[in-house]
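Appendix B: complex inputs.
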Amino acid sequence: MTIFLVNIAQILLMVLAAPMAAGIVKKMKARLQNRQGAGIFQPYRDLSKLFGKEMVLADHASWIFRAAPYIVFTSTVLAASVVPVIVVDSPFSWTADVIALAGFLAIGTFFTALAGMDIGTVFGGMGASREMTFSALAEPALLMSIFVLSVTAQSTNLSVMIHHILDAGILLKPSIAFALIAMLMVSIVENGRIPVDNPGTHLEVTMIHEAMLLEYSGRHLALIEWATQIKLVLFATLIFDLFFPWGISTAVATIALLTALALWIFKLILFFVLLVIIETGLAKMRLFEVPQFLSTAFFLALLGMFMHYILEVGAQ
Amino acid sequence: MNWFTFLLGAPLVAALWLAFDAHPYRSAWVNKIAAALTFVASLGLAVQVLESGRIMVWDDWFFIDAFNVFLVALTAFVATTTAIFSGPYMRHELEIGKIDSGRLRLYHAMSQLFVFGMFLGQTSNNLGIVWLSLEIATLATVLLVSLYRTPGSIAAAWKYLIICGVGISLALFGTAMLYFASSDVLGHGDAALTWTLLYASADKLDPTVMSLAFVFLMVGYGTKVGLAPMHTWLPDAHAEGPTPVSAVLSGLLLNLALYSLVRCKMLVDVSTGTHFAGNLMMGFGLLSLLVAGFSLHKQHDIKRMFSFSSIEHMALMTFTFGIGTPVANFAAMLHMTTHSLVKSAIFFTVGHAAQAMGTQVMSNIRGLINHQPGIGWGLLIGTCAIAGFPPFGVFTSEFLIFSAALQSYPWTVIVLLLGLLIAVAGLFRFVPDMTYGEVPEYAKQVHANMLPVYIHFALALLLGISIPGFLAGWYHQAAALIAGGGV
Amino acid sequence: MSQILLQQIITMGAALMLLISFALLAQKRMLSLLHWFALQGIVLAAVTALVAYTSDNTELYVSAAITLVLKGMLLPWVLWKIIRQMHVHREVEPLVNIPVTMLIAAALVVFSYQVTLPIEHLSHLITRNTIAVAMANVLLGMLMMITRKKAITQVIGFLAIENSLFFAGVGATYGMPLVAELGVAFDVLIASVVFGLFFYQIRDTFESLDLNKMENK
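Resulting structure:
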């Protein structure tokens, strides 16, 4: 029974903490750029304001446009429920499959793009086409880098993979290093961060993600923004699970759970620091360079796969 | 021991000397004398080997046995006649302004360095040094091929450098793999690349590794031998370089590459206990034979045509060494000798013919016999000899090759016959037009030194009529050696 | 302990070498190509030195030093000088577009793995797994030579092959005998001089280092 509760708690934790995480990133970024910045709870205020606002719908909006925010939000939450945050095993751990995870994320992306095209505005269509182009390249890279770990653990189940890595001890393997870099690169694209996309502006001709959301308002916009925030935390957690799972609790015991929670927050903050430094330090790349960026990620993951078979399995 | 010092020392000292001596007559003489010295040294070594079997020199770093001493003697002989030939030839090129005195120095120095590389590779007991010497010989000849600095010659030399550079890298990879296998048995260090030690314990070398190593060596050294499909550098390099260079490329360098390959094959044969290496060589040989035969027909440049003939004959030798029986090895070595003699003589003749007509384009070379009978008859006799007409030595060796093939792999005879017939048809498609007929008005008299040519032909004739007893004994010894009849 | 350490080093080195081979194929600019090439030399020297340290092989230190000076510094620097002096266009100019090249490269890696696997099964050296990487690197170097237009890029491909061969020696057998290593180093040096000479000859004759011009003459 407790394990159910813990599980629900960790899903809720991810969903509810996500806006704060976004707030922290914004705050850190502002500080790094010598600005004061808004408080870390600002995203909650924004969300609640948006939930309270009246929605403006375009005349041409079909049911897809109206359903998309709910689908996006639900699929993201479902994806989040697959990823172990503080405890590895759960009654649903058999569902914690990385391919399912990638599928949930793809549904979200797909409906965002559909909604972007639905209204028929220039920006929506443009953003949708870019998003689909990039996600077609990002998806294989993401899967490939996860598969590097899957073949090591001989499973695509996240819980099993985490157990395997925990059992194997500190792993200094080139395959995993390559997969990690690939994964980080993909996360940048999937979350629309600098240097691929800029989440903080609606004013650039080169925008991708934001371009699809221009027509949304009120509750719809709130849901999509929230989903985006969850997605960032989700990717961070996924990277921790796959590459740095140490500290995650393997049993339902109070102390272990609390340690796991503290470590998760600590890792998250480290991750955000890294993210903020990258975002501040790098200029946005030109749009046509993104496919190249993604194919680099794919090839890194592929190299990781080769390394696994050639050097680590080899002739043993 | 003393002979050996001469053999390696003479070309090296001469190369240094000639690098600084631009005097056209003196440098040509130094070139000749150095080559002649190596020839004397090689004969001295040959006598020693025939009397007392294998000689080890300088702490086993070098060795001379029946197989390589014959090559050393052949190399020294062809190098000497080439030096004799190149004297007036290069002077002519100097006079018409195709080269300047600096280039002449480069030519002489690089020729001697090339000869040094040849001897180093043939006598070295260390497979690493064998590889290195092929590379030295390659780099020296690359500079020689580009000697005229024409766009064509530079393009040819670049192609030669790049293709052979890659080929030779693959051979190095093969050598590294071989070392990988042998260091398990002989431990780390020079011993594991020393051929005699390797051969003594070849049965302990891992067959799988050795097979893979041989594939790389085959492709790597095969590039150098001029086997299809890696042969594309060869016609260009032959056509664009000065004629003496074409002669030594065809007559010597290709032999060294094949020699290195055969040495490795001997190891692989013992290691695997199968005919894998031989099959590979036979396959490449047959393919190259057909490719060369067909390509012969499409040529316009006289040197290119004869370089395809070289590919054809190298292919034949590769095939024959691949058969691997003592008879086949005997035939292959005889063929190597006769081909080197005849082909270098042909290139000498062709060089003079091209100088006389001022062009290498075959349709513009006409009436050589009427113009300068020495050159015309030389070309005609040479073509008959290389085509395998009796009574020349090529006929004898080809006959032996056929009987060896018939004995072991009868079906291959059909392919061999087809390839040779196509090639002969190709040769006689062009040569009669060049030798007979009216003399074109642009033809001019050149000072032709046909003596080396006729010496070569005479030797080829001698080998065709009756192989001297000592030579036959020598070949027998070497043939048995290669076939695995003990060291 | 030292055996495990050695294995880790060589494995990491192999991974880096393969990464660099791919990176060399992916570069579009001459300067970054040279940077990666220099990095390859440095990684190679570092791996060699570490292998020398763990396997107590003094001869390898010499090889490592030569590698560092020759391939990590001298050759990239000379190539850069030549590029500057000859006003070579700063772009790499591939004949086959880069993503396709990369896919071919990936296929070559799989091929090398397939070919060398039986050998690796037989050996009992802890470094046996690097043979596949070394062979893949050689093939990737060849791929680079085939798919690039310029004389300089071909030469970099050639030198990358040499580096891979050296790595094959170090990785698979803890280095070839010193005579062979020195010979190869000497050869690389001489070959580079010859390459350098040719750059000038080609430039003077064809007024470009683009090899297509050479073919059309």
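The longest helix of chain C spans residues 58-86.
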